[in-house]
């Protein structure tokens, strides 16, 4: 794989993004082409996420978009980690789209943000994944190396 | 045996090349060639080092020698054709800075064809080279065209001026009536010149307007580049060959439907290929949209 592949594609995605993003998604920074920050909001009146904005961190490897990016929520004073049965309290997301199996190179930063938006919109459970505390305490792995068990692919 | 020592010299050259010491690598490849001047692969190795040293003319000599040697010896040796693609790829890279745009494009396309046929992993790099050559050729042609248009504008204005001067000379007696006429003539020509300048200016403005994004049909959804060699999946969706093959090497699934898909299932989309070619010939800027 030539080194250029990821950089070129990311440059073009950025180009497109700077011409506009769907409602509720905002680019915070992409100064470093390998690490982007975006803010997302849920657009309907789901009481679990009302009035909150969440920050996402994307990290891209050299083989993006053949390989998926690493995407996590990051916590800041005004940016909580959204409550969801597939989102651990340290920001790690369990979504098959972001895993080695579910990823497809036609996905993009924009489409991932939209998928996460709709994953939140559709949720009614005010809970963390089972074993959250233990996972957050014990996990030292990078998100992409974790073998999640997708017990419920409808969410 | 000289063959043995030539191989050892090449290996040592490779080690220096990997460390980035291209001068030392080039010297070792030269020694290897002196020890065995008939091995075509040694010439592409040296060409690779010379590319890094920006010695374009000697890159071309090496690659041509490699192609000559490999066509005179048996062409069906395994790996033979994949080495030939390297000679063609390097030829393209050397001709481009020398501003031999047509050759650079032609060699890149030849290299691309061999890579596509052999499913070589360098296909993505060679595809990028095709695009780069086409873009630079387009930019060069645009520059020439703009210069010619500017010259034409100057010539047309000059001709009008001369015509006007001729008319003014024939009626240069100095009586009031003639003076009136002279002013009339002068005014008419100045207006004409103004209009000519405005027409050229408008044409330039149109070109300088911000370019739209290239049309979606020309863009590969994986690399986001204009397609050079579009191939179709079973669903009828087309991707750049280099991109989809890279994806299929990792996961044999259709990127959209996730149903099973292999490299063998891909079909060339010839009409789209021609459409993309035509589009790029007119819109070389789209390589870097």
Q: How would you sum up this structure, described in words?
A:
- The complex is a heterodimer of chains A (155) and B (289).
- By secondary structure, chain A is α+β, with helices and mostly antiparallel strands.
- Chain A has one domain: Ubiquitin Conjugating Enzyme (Roll).
- Helix content of chain A is 23%, strand content 17%.
- Chain A is built from three helices and four strands.
- Chain A has a four-stranded antiparallel sheet with strand order 1-2-3-4, with helices on one face.
- The mean pLDDT of chain A is 87.
- By secondary structure, chain B is mainly alpha-helical.
- Chain B has three domains: 2-134, Tetratricopeptide repeat domain (Serine Threonine Protein Phosphatase 5, Tetratricopeptide repeat); 146-208; 216-288, Zinc/RING finger domain, C3HC4 (zinc finger) (Herpes Virus-1).
- Chain B is built from ten helices and three strands.
- Chain B has helices at 2-19, 22-35, 40-52, 56-72, 80-95, 101-118, 123-170, 176-208, 241-250, 270-282; strands at 230-232, 238-240, 267-268.
- Chain B has a three-stranded antiparallel sheet with strand order 2-1-3.
- In chain B, helix 2 runs antiparallel to helix 3 (40-52) and helix 4 (56-72) packs antiparallel against helix 5.
- The longest helix of chain B has 48 residues, at 123-170.
- Chain B is elongated.
- The model of chain B is unreliable at 75-80 (pLDDT under 50).
- Classes of the chains: A alpha+beta (155), B mainly alpha (289).
- Chain A binds chain B through residues 1-2, 4-5, 8-9, 12-13, 15-16, 19, 65-67, 101, 104-106, and chain B through 121, 124-125, 128, 213, 221-225, 243, 246-247, 250-251, 253, 255-256, 258, 289.
């Amino acid at each position: 794989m030539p080194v250029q592949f990821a950089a070129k594609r990311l440059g073009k995605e950025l180009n497109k993004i700077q011409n506009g993003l769907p409602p509720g998604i905002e680019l915070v920074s992409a100064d470093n082409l390998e690490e982007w920050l975006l803010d997302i909001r849920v657009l309907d009146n789901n009481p679990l996420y009302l009035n909150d904005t969440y920050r996402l961190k994307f990290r891209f490897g050299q083989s993006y978009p053949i390989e998926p990016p690493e995407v996590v929520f990051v916590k800041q004073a005004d940016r909580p980690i959204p409550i969801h049965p597939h989102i651990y309290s340290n920001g790690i997301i369990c979504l098959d789209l972001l895993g080695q199996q579910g990823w497809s190179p036609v996905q993009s930063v924009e489409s991932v943000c939209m998928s996460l938006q709709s994953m939140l919109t559709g949720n009614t459970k005010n809970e963390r994944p089972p074993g959250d505390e233990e996972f957050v305490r014990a996990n030292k792995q990078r998100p992409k190396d974790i073998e999640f068990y997708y017990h419920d692919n409808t969410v | 045996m000289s063959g043995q020592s030539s191989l050892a010299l090449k290996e040592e050259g490779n080690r220096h090349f990997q460390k980035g010491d291209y001068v030392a690598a080039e010297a070792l490849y030269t020694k290897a060639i002196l020890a065995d001047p008939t091995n075509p692969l040694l010439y592409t190795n040296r060409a690779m080092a010379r590319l890094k040293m920006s010695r374009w003319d000697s890159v071309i000599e090496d690659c041509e020698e490699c192609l000559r040697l490999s066509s005179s010896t048996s062409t069906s040796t395994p790996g033979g054709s994949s080495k030939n693609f390297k000679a063609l790829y390097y030829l393209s890279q050397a001709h481009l800075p020398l501003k031999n745009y047509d050759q650079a494009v032609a060699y890149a396309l030849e290299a691309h064809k061999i890579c596509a046929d052999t499913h070589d992993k360098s296909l993505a790099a060679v595809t990028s080279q095709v695009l780069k050559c086409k873009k630079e050729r387009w930019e060069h042609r645009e520059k020439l065209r703009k210069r010619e248009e500017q010259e034409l504008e100057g010539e047309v204005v000059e001709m009008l001026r001369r015509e006007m001067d001729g008319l003014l000379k024939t009626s240069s007696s100095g009586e009031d009536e003639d003076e009136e006429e002279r002013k009339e003539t002068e005014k008419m020509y100045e207006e004409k010149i103004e209009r000519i300048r405005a027409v050229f200016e408008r044409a330039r403005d149109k070109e300088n307007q911000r370019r739209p994004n290239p049309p979606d049909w020309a863009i590969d959804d994986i690399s986001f580049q204009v397609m050079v060699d579009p191939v179709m999946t079973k669903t009828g969706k087309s991707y750049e060959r280099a991109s989809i093959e890279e994806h299929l090497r990792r996961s044999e699934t259709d990127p959209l439907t996730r149903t099973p898909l292999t490299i063998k299932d891909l079909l060339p989309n010839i009409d789209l290929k021609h459409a993309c070619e035509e589009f790029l010939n007119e819109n070389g800027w789209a390589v870097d949209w």
